[in-house]
Amino acid sequence: MITDDDIYLIHEAMVVAQQGEGAVNPNPLVGALIVRDDDVIASGYHMKYGDLHAERMAFKDADEKGVDCAGATMYVTLEPCCHQGNQPPCTEAIIERKIARVVVGLMDPNPLVAGKGIAQLREAGIEVDTLESEPKAAQVVEQLKIQNRVFLKYITTGMPWVTLKWAMTLDGKIASHVGDSKWVTGKKARERVHQVRHNNMAIMTGIGTVLADDPMLNVRLDDAWRQPVRIVLDRRARIPMESQLVRTANEQPLIVVFAEGADGEKLEELQEAGVVLWEYDNVEELMQRIGAEKIDSVLVESGGTLSESLLMKGLVDEVMAFVAPKIIGGKTAKTPVEGEGIELMNEAIKLKNRIVEQIGEDILISGLCSQE
């Protein structure tokens, strides 16, 4: 039976889990608490891909504190794994430590787990309760699903979570009519963008953005431990050999996506420079290929043409729009989403689970795409 205290403690475990953001992909964010007599005696979270899972991190914390976990309750945000991966099964550790009760936030949809972890614990005589079966826990369950939205999509569909990001002025321009875009937003907003980049496994852009801005598409954070894969959609392989992207291809992965008919000599040059080449005509199939490469999340930073294409094909999961308190005008100035657009307002793509934040002098509006 799930109590109000159980719901509260799973929420606290969710807060702990968040500390792994940007480091665990393509694994989920998971937090675990070990509780005895209403006191949290140990805690842990999945810190980095390949490292100990949250449950074993909590036991490590208990060992360091000299705490006996026998008879205690474990609160874990995601069903404990029961298979051998980079780490041994967490169910084994829970059984060995003689945990009496386990409260689970979300069931793991991974076919290798998917209820098997809970069944294994129950077979060992451990009481297991799940929040998803309790109506009064619906709000926390929804928060858990949002926290692990990247993992949940990736593990059930094999497709990456796609976030479309742009920075625009108050009148909806991403650059002036002559193409100047440095800088639309302020320093604080640009710092946030680097954090968002760090949280995604790949950054995607179009060749138009590369030719106009010569971007690096890297993460410039002192504590960054991983750089994202960079993906450029470039049908005719026009990317300059002297571009920052190509010159750093051996330092940070660069994938150039070209189409049939691209210059063969140029493709050979790119390959010699360390660029990975993919041939695709269909962006839907491209997303499937990205997922097959174990890339669970893609941040799109592009011009309005690619943005419109992805949105209209229903391939965008989340939008992050940074809005600067500036007005620049210009009927030919570029906008975040171009193309023909919709005809009727009721056809508009709406954002749900919206969040509005002030970041320095700018505003960030973010939300999940809904085409209902």
Structure description:
By secondary structure, the chain is of the alpha/beta class. The protein is about 30% helix and about 25% strand. It is built from twelve helices and 14 strands. The strands form two sheets. It has a nine-stranded mixed beta sheet with strand order 10-9-8-7-11-6-12-14-13. A five-stranded mixed beta sheet has the order 2-1-3-4-5, with helices on both faces.
Q: What topology does this entry show?
A:
Blueprint: H1 4-17, E1 31-36, E2 39-45, H2 54-65, E3 73-78, H3 90-96, E4 101-106, H4 116-123, E5 127-130, H5 138-147, H6 149-157, E6 161-169, H7 187-199, E7 202-206, H8 207-213, E8 229-233, H9 244-247, E9 254-258, H10 264-272, E10 276-279, H11 283-292, E11 297-300, H12 304-312, E12 318-324, E13 350-359, E14 362-370
Parallel strand pairs: 3-4, 4-5, 6-11, 6-12, 7-8, 7-11, 8-9, 9-10
Antiparallel strand pairs: 1-2, 1-3, 12-14, 13-14
